[in-house]
Amino acid sequence: MRVLIFSSPRSASYSYGTLLSETHGLYDVGEPWPLYFYDNPNLKTTLEQSNELYLGNQNACMKLHSGHVAEYMPHRHRGWFQDVLNATDEIHFLLRKDTQAQIKSLFVANYYSTLVDKQDKFFKNVFEGTWQEDLVIPDTPVNRALWKRMEMLIHVNLVGLSILYHTLIDQNPKVVWTEDIVDKLPGQKYNRPVKFDWEPEYMFANDEFYPAQNNQIFAPNKDKF
């Protein structure tokens, strides 16, 4: 069985892949390649390895953000995404109900990464950081700009995921909410107390503003059009 997991940043997709791997005996491929490191000389090798592990393994799971599917990405042959879909038995959308908490988590992870010694090359360790005392976030133009970028990154990912979800609706994608399975997820639970010197404003604060209504957006279609 091959399971394709669509997710967005800070949705516990790494732990969910581990859970599927342990529960169903699947090889956890992870992500096909990092989204942000365009100049990484290992990108082509990473993608080729992911293709081989997922497409060449009868039992595997792989996670994608909406940006992963674009055909123009480097080292990706035309039709790659269709090949992945054709090989997939189950499609899961892993989502967070609390968009605001997701934005805050992504902001804190990125802010914290700027505090880590630049000689620390382990990106994974940076984003899995944990601490005991309050991490105070100062009110600066740089931090406010970072907050807005993280909001837009989550927004763009959710828009992309909603398009994918309704495009693939006939394949009966399964919607999984992070909050509903958090107690089942393996691995470390983050301890990240944070105190802001300003009150961040959420452009998703209005319940009527897309994509705040995730429960409605990612609901099964009852009617065929």
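Above is the first protein from milestone M3; the second protein from the same milestone is given next.
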Amino acid sequence: MRRRAVGRRAAVGILVALAIGACSRRDRSSGAAGEASAEPAAPPSAAAGAVTKAARLTECPGDMTLVAGGRFMMGSNDSSYSLWQPAHPVTVDTVCIDRDEVTADKYKTCVDKGACGRPDPVPSYPKSAGTSDEDHERYRQAYAEMCNFGKEGRGDHPINCVTWAMADAYCKAQGRRLPTEAEWEYAARGRDSRKYPWGEERGDARHMNGCGAECARWQKEKGVPMTPQMYEADDGFVGTAPVGRFPEGKTKLGANDFVGNVWEWTADWYETYKPEEVVNPKGALAGDRKAIRGGDFNGGTDHCLNPAYRHHQLATASSHGIGFRCAMDL
């Protein structure tokens, strides 16, 4: 780890700024109050029962992976980063989660159907402390080339430059939803609370799209704030990479890019953790910032490799460093 807690929190804040229940049931008809039904209701037929059973989702779609429910330790007690403290026991239900981050092509299909809004051509995010208005605008314009929607050759890259509401709308249009923070972390690390999504050994340019030599060159050329490098090698992608391009970084369940490429919106409003055990936590009831997970292509600290790593961003922001993947209940 390259810096102590105070320095790393400041660096992460800059990196993120730049890079970035009710139950439904069927209505039941009955006679008017005080009246008896003319005939008793007929029992459902075997055929009707068979149709109902066949209509139930019993396995994940082919582009998703099954995350069997269970209990794990969420967060970390590592004092070098405050936002992931404390580690606490969490139980989550079984869920399906996208194997890959949602791509620009898939998102465009939703836009073409009129179900999704067009991403911002220039990213929009809060200005970092100490940054002038002029520099903030210059950084936004520089990072606009990283926005993937409508860019030739980037259809298989993750969609980015979308607000939380846009991500939420896309998932709903597919009959899915955004994952909670707990579901996301559990999918990334599993019951064994593995150190990294892929195992116990620190990753490199084969495992993720982080900040390598290519990242440092681009930042210097564009005159944007320099971020630490994750590794000295050139991973081949100045910005985002096609989803699934780093197979060494797969999770135990075979999902891709849980570290690097883009941060991912989650369903939860951000709040600090409490030590008590919880079941299917869903974050704060309200707020203005949503929890984001996974780090992005600018990531250069060891914290970015940890499945417990978390941050937050205004729900109305549309950053070149934030995309998403969807989840689905079984």
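Note on the second protein: The chain has one domain: 58-329.
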